[in-house]
Hints:
Elements: E1 2-3, E2 6-10, H1 17-32, H2 45-57, E3 64-70, E4 73-82, E5 91-99, H3 108-122, E6 127-133, H4 138-144, E7 148-158, E8 165-174
Parallel strand pairs: 5-6
Antiparallel strand pairs: 1-2, 2-3, 3-4, 4-5, 6-8, 7-8
Helix pairs in contact: 1-2
Coenzyme A is lined by residues 30, 35, 37, 97-99, 104-110, 132, 136-138, 140-141, 144.
Amino acid sequence: xxxxxxxxxxxxxxxxxxxxxxxxxxxxxxxxxxxxxxxxxxxxxxxxxxxxxxxxxxxxxxxxxxxxxxxxxxxxxxxxxxxxxxxxxxxxxxxxxxxxxxxxxxxxxxxxxxxxxxxxxxxxxxxxxxxxxxxxxxxxxxxxxxxxxxxxxxxxxxxxxxxxxxxxxxxxxxxxxxxx
Length: 180
Ligand SMILES: CC(C)(COP(=O)(O)OP(=O)(O)OC[C@H]1O[C@@H](n2cnc3c(N)ncnc32)[C@H](O)[C@@H]1OP(=O)(O)O)[C@@H](O)C(=O)NCCC(=O)NCCS
């Protein structure tokens, strides 16, 4: 898939050092753009590297880590994180969707979400869930892709400035079984 000369690929859960550092760069730039993706603006390179190392080390065998690449650079990412509960083999969380601030509004966010949904279908999942800061532009994207908004939980997390609490909006999407 190609969006404005970026290619979407599955990175796998054992990337090389250089790609881990590219993912660290992407998170740091995204947080600097005031995005609510789990970090405060005081997050260090080491904090973010520890996050990626933890995600990769603990990944469910069916985890799908997508990246959007322009040349060698990683300009976007999203994860399909299958549920671990024994009674939820059909469900995954869509996590950490982000596009580098200089690469936004060119269709990459949509392409990453479409890749994540297709990947989830391909591995036999029928329910995907996510949450996002209430009122963020990502809500337009999810709704345009047919996600259902359940509601929002107030005061869920801090903005990157570490001072203001924001609500989180909770979404789900039922997937048709992929018979192809
Ligand atoms: C949300 C995000 C991933 C969208 O990435 P993107 O590449 O800019 O998105 P696209 O260009 O594919 O746009 C997809 C849709 O998102 C919505 N959208 C994206 N940016 C928007 C903006 N600034 N204002 C309004 N709607 C916007 C629109 O519905 C758009 O569809 P359209 O172009 O047909 O109008 C990006 O803004 C981002 O990384 N934000 C910070 C991290 C974040 O909030 N992640 C999500 C929750 S963890």
